[in-house]
Specification:
about 220 residues; alpha/beta; TIM Barrel; 8-stranded parallel β-sheet; about 35% helix; binds D-xylitol-5-phosphate; binds zinc ion; Ribul_P_3_epim
Length: about 220
């Protein structure tokens, strides 16, 4: 088994010092940089969009893991790819033509992910799981950093891991929301292989050390 991939979310970074914070992530054991795009429609909050993503890319030495919390994400996939996204994750709840949207992401040469809100049954991914690189299981309701982790997530991870194994899919399970030192190991043992962490990393006295510790959970 391998250590989990750690994807710190820049939503919790200091936006007035983004270059400094991205350079900190470059020096750290972080594997990906998680970029949260919120449109104020799909979720009740607006974060930032294309120019800020491109600015992060300019300094990032790690892949950008772009989480699109927006309606009609198919309209913006190419633009986010051009802005530097390496992984493009859309929400199941925002995609009536999910199969087509996944193919669109792949045709852009990016890794394809689908995110599920806490109430969305994981089994709904059964018919696309073989095409996915990533399943992002939300462990809070999307829209804000710093929320409390939903305990039911562990069972959802186990169910998703079983579905992935049965389909012979290479998809990895990523968890997003309220991840910290006390749930990271349990998530890993349930089958999660990528962990997003926003506030836990950026409010830590030593974020580089905190990222390294999150990786040691397996
Ligand atoms: C929530 C975002 C998360 C968020 C995680 O809608 O998708 O990526 O930044 O932040 P924490 O780790 O603080 O819950
Ligand atoms: Zn996210």
């Amino acid at each position: 088994m391998n250590a989990p991939l750690i994807a710190p979310s820049v939503l919790a970074a200091d936006f007035a010092n983004l270059q400094r914070d991205v350079e900190m992530l470059n020096r750290s054991a972080a594997d990906w940089i998680h970029v949260d795009i919120m449109d104020g429609v799909f979720v009740p909050n607006i974060s930032f969009g294309l120019p800020v993503t491109a600015a992060i890319k300019k300094h990032a030495q790690k892949p950008l893991d772009v989480h699109l919390m927006i309606v009609q994400p198919e309209r913006y996939l190419e633009a986010f790819r051009d802005a530097g996204a390496d992984i493009l994750t859309v929400h199941y709840e925002a995609c009536p033509h999910l199969h087509r949207t996944i193919q669109q992401i792949k045709s852009l040469g990016a890794k394809a992910g689908v995110a599920l809100n806490p109430h969305t049954p994981v089994q709904l991914l059964q018919d696309v799981i073989a095409d996915l690189d990533l399943v992002l299981i939300m462990s809070v309701n999307p829209g804000f950093g710093g929320q409390k982790f939903i305990e039911r997530t562990y069972e959802r991870v186990r169910q998703t891991a079983a579905m992935i194994a049965e389909a012979g899919s290479n998809a990895i399970i990523e968890i997003d929301g309220g991840v910290n030192q006390s749930n990271a190991a349990l998530l890993y043992h349930a089958g999660a292989r990528a962990l997003v962490a926003g506030n836990f990393v950026f409010t830590a006295a030593d974020p580089v050390q905190t990222i390294a510790e999150l990786k040691k959970v397996w």
